[in-house]
Amino acid sequence: MEADIAGFITIGAVVAFVAAQLLRTLRTHITQKTLREAVKKGTAIDPELLMDADRPAPAGTNDLRIGMVLIALSLAIAAFGLLEGGSSIRESMEIALFPLFVGLALLLRLRLVRDRVEG
Predict the structure, then answer these.
(1) Which residues of 14-24 are buried (b: 16+ CB within 10 A; e: fewer)?
(2) pLDDT tens digits, the chain, 119 residues: what are they?
């Protein structure tokens, strides 16, 4: 059973990574296509627009959302273990610790970044 869970987690992580890369490539393609069409039409393109199109999102942009999702996932795993009962309670709690700590670390990082920007 543990091998099944590890396999599903691995497959899920690979699918998520590939999907993220495909979406990033698609976004870049659409942006470049829009800029090409603007150049073909003779529209003046502001240099700041070109710089913004290539600029990555600031660090920590999605930390709040991802942190909250990981904490919710941790709570769901823990609740599943409690509902199942028996020996799966301890195993579920152990598994739930990983997303909980990662989510908390992301929220802490977000707070530190905000404090640094404000202070």
Answers:
(1) eeeeeeeeeee
(2) 566 777 777 888 888 889 989 988 898 888 888 888 888 888 877 777 777 766 766 666 778 888 899 999 999 988 888 888 877 788 888 888 999 999 999 999 988 888 887 76
- Say whether both 64 and 49 belong to one domain: no
Residue 74, in any domain of the structure: yes
> How many CB atoms neighbour CB 81 within 10 A?
20
- How many domains, in total, are found in the chain? 2
| Residues 49 and 14 occupy one common structural domain | yes
User: How far is Cα 106 from Cα 80, in angstroms, rounded to an integer?
Assistant: 24
Please report which helix (H) or strand (E) contains residue 76, including its range. Answer: helix 63-84
Residue 62, domain extent = 57-114
Is 119 inside a domain boundary? no
